[in-house]
DNA sequence: TCGATATTTCGGCGATAATCGAAATATGAC
DNA sequence: GTCATATTTCGATTATCGCCGAAATATCGA
């Protein structure tokens, strides 16, 4: 299923903020296992309530997923969503010469397949 | 040269707006030859002064380049900048298992090599 | 149940962003 | 030089964003 432009804007907006981008990259680095909200807050250096707002935005954009584990909530990156966004950005690249840029389409094969 | 986080935020912010995203995708589709500002305004359906503001933001973020041709100003996508952004987003993907996501690193080979 | 830890929700404040109309600048044709 | 076309700059208005402190919710252990 292809991304709509408003969906792509939502995802890009979610990433277009320093703290949220840092959070997302941290989760990309962490892989499918993810990290608890508290650890993210400590690592990024942001208050828990502010982080919660950021996580909510990333979640609503579909870029990360939350799952509860005891008192903690574990967040992990959704790699499929990211792949969809990258594909959307490069769609129809170079018009008549797609073979130049098309290699992007089949990228980032599995990588945990989100969560 | 690797991207800094603030630079990446600038690029993502530039793309995180409906009209600007539409403009960028149009220029990606157009390829290295680019399009004059007027044609972009007509295609996207936005007033020339508003478009100019958007183009300025995309240009300042390094995602597009401008060159003058007579009375027109031709804008074209900077594919190298885009490649840099994608690489930044997926840096250190999945931590210990980079071979799963790494294929992203060497992507989008030339595609006009910007301008 | 009570207290401690982990996270989220709420209300408000200051800063930033998107758009507009009007005017200014740049280039080419006559 | 004068006019028309193409694009940009300016100033103002309205809406949205990011942060905070305080309070609420959820889970676990004693």
From TrEMBL, chains A, B:
It comes from the Bacteria. Residues 1-97 form the HTH arsR-type domain. CDD domains: HTH_ARSR (cd00090). Pfam families: HTH_20 (PF12840). One of its GO terms (molecular function) is DNA-binding transcription factor activity. The keyword Glycoprotein does not apply. Keywords: DNA-binding, Transcription, Transcription regulation. This is Transcriptional regulator.
């Amino acid at each position: 299923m292809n991304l709509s432009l408003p969906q792509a804007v939502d995802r890009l907006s979610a990433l277009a903020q320093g703290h949220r981008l840092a959070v997302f990259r941290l989760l990309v680095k962490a892989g499918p296992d993810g990290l608890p909200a508290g650890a993210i807050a400590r690592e990024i250096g942001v208050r828990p309530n502010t982080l919660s707002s950021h996580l909510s935005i990333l979640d609503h954009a579909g870029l990360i997923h939350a799952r509860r584990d005891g008192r903690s909530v574990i967040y992990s990156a959704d790699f499929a969503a990211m792949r969809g966004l990258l594909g959307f950005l490069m769609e129809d690249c170079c018009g008549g010469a797609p073979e130049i840029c098309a290699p992007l389409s089949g990228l980032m094969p599995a990588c945990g397949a989100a969560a």
